[in-house]
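not sure who needs this but someone in the group chat was asking about Luciferase family oxidoreductase group 1 from Streptomyces avidinii so here u go. i didnt clean anything up, its just raw.
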Amino acid sequence: MSDAGDDAQSRSGADGAANRNASGIRGTAHGRATVPLSVLDLVTVGAGSTAHASLRTSVEIARLAESRGYHRHWVAEHHSMPGVASSSPAVILAHLAAHTSRIRLGSGGVMLPNHAPLAVAEQFGTLEALAPGRIDLGLGRAPGTDGRTAAALRGPGRLDEAADEFPRRLAELTRFLDDDFPDGHPYARVHAVPGPVQGPAGRPPLWLLGSSGFSARLAGELGLPFAYAHHFSAAGTLPALDLYRRSFRPSVVLDAPYAVIGVSALAADTAEEARAQVLTGALSMLRLRSGRPGLIPTPEAAAAYAFSPLEREFVDGWLANVVHGTPDEVRAGLDELAGRTGADELMVTANAHSGAARLRSYGLIADVYGMPVEAPAAD
């Protein structure tokens, strides 16, 4: 573990830790759900639709999730993907905060290598000021895009940063959030605003996200909550969670590991309808992996697509890790996954062409678990 990582660990024990709202990390399972359920929103854009419509759907999903007992609603950072409109998580989260009042909102995640730590601290300090006690700051070390786009985001000379650069940037971000650079540090008189320099203030809990062992180990060593991207890297789920738990050291944030896994899941009134919807997401992923990204195709286009044997193998493998079907089938799949992985929380992402299908899926999942029904908060 580098000195930078140890530095981040020491920040977790700094004065003011009570303001970190660690109580928001551990969720509560509602109804017959075995673990808390949350939402991972990719703000997908289907063929024939617009980013405006997809962002409006995200508000509807957040309001439904809040009224039905989902614990949190996270937005993922992706770039240069026509079918995903979540390139600016902080902007979207501010919009969602204005239309909700209770549900936790966060990044799943901000790709830290793409941003200056001070900029992230100021963005999420602003979000915390807008929605006190409801903001999560999830961080990843991948670019969230292809190499050429990453170069455009980061500028020349930064694509080959060493692996240990992420812990250093994490430590820097943490110090900006806590406003506690030591005397003599070049940033000792630089303050993230909004932030502690203005007086006592809460700040969002940090999460590490990953699809490999690097972030799992780092999250464990720092005593931070960890979110694993099972929805696109299912083969590594169990090894990463095991590494996180074995590496875990208690901190003021957590006294025991807390692991969330992202899972693709879509419920519909019939298994055939669910299959038609998730096939659109699988074809979209195939095109992305083939260097042909685009809007999420319609169910009709996906059904008519002539898959080559190699493409069919990819799609079948992809769909094997998507929990889909009737509400009862989805409930069984989610329960099996939670039991097999020991995940403390499931974060469900519904990747489909239709915004209406995604919204209905979250409602059906809440129904099948008997989750509460409350009136959405007034705008």
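also The chain has 13 helices and nine strands. if thats useful
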